[in-house]
Design goal:
248 residues; alpha/beta; six-stranded parallel sheet; two-stranded antiparallel ribbon; 11 helices; 11% strand; binds ligand PTJ
């Protein structure tokens, strides 16, 4: 049991959720390693949602609201870290969740689907279509979801799928604490924030923006420059580390 007054309580609780996710067959062991990388970036970013992240979260919500077929891709880490919050976001944005995993087995996909359904979301997981150009398992998608989506939200993504989604004419929104990752660099909107803060922030933006006009939403999206977000994220790491070094 982790005492509530432990200085790293929230961080340790996230680890507990992922370990439990592994025991349930939802999260893969590789997901623990991926989380460790995320933790490291969160640490050097100061474990808070920076202004550049809040901006990207708002733009992401506006873009999803403007889209005809937005879809939220969910993997094993996302499913256990923010099941309730991502289901709420899905409802507010009218964007179904789709189980899409790197370490694929039909059994695992079904487990993630059943788990998410408990939170009331519409969950696609038919695995009945393939994204051309990808050789790994993330190519396996649902014909009603990512396959026909115009915008895909991809939290904690790995490798090259972002590029392939874009080649298929889709817009990609990434949530990734590592601003240097391939996905972060290639996405249309990169949210450099911990998923446990990013998704609740997006829920709030969705409540605020859901009745906005298309013109208002377009204005939010059109003035956005993702390269500026990446630049600011990298600079935030430098500034934070310099501040700490100089305070010693
Ligand atoms: O469930 P599966 O089979 O799809 O597998 C999922 C993992 C996460 C194992 C797979 O997608 C993977 O290997 O991912 P990577 O290549 O390690 O990339 C994950 C990215 O997410 C890294 O850049 C991490 O920095 C970032 N990340 C990890 N935890 C968080 C995070 N970003 C935001 N919030 C987090 N909590």
């Amino acid at each position: 049991m982790i005492p509530k007054d432990h200085p790293r309580y929230e961080s340790l609780m996230m680890r507990e959720k992922l370990v439990k996710g592994c025991r349930m067959g939802i999260t893969v062991l590789q997901g623990l390693i991926a989380h460790g990388r995320g933790e490291m970036f969160d640490y050097v970013l100061g474990e808070r949602s920076h202004d550049f992240a809040l901006r990207a979260e708002k733009v992401a919500v506006a873009l999803m609201l403007l889209s005809k077929r937005p879809v939220i891709s969910v993997n094993g880490n996302t499913a256990v870290l923010v099941p309730k919050e991502i289901s709420e976001l899905s409802r507010l944005l009218n964007a179904p969740l789709e189980v899409n995993v790197f370490h694929f087995s039909k059994e695992r996909v079904d487990k993630i689907r059943s788990y998410l359904k408990r939170f009331g979301a519409e969950v696609l997981a038919n695995c009945d279509a393939e994204l051309k150009g990808l050789s790994h398992a993330r190519r396996i998608v649902d014909r009603r979801g990512i396959y026909v989506a115009d915008t895909v939200l991809v939290p904690l993504e790995d490798g090259d799928r972002c590029e392939i989604l874009k080649r298929h004419g889709k817009r990609v929104i990434a949530i990734d604490l590592n601003p240097l990752s391939r996905t972060a660099m290639k996405a249309d909107v990169t949210i450099v924030d911990n998923i446990v803060r990013a998704v609740p922030n997006m829920v709030e933006f969705a409540k605020e923006l859901k009745d906005s006009s298309r013109e208002e939403l377009k204005e939010i999206v059109n003035s956005y420059d993702n390269r500026e977000t990446l630049r600011m994220a990298l600079k935030a790491i430098r500034v934070n580390l310099t501040k700490i070094a100089e305070s010693l």
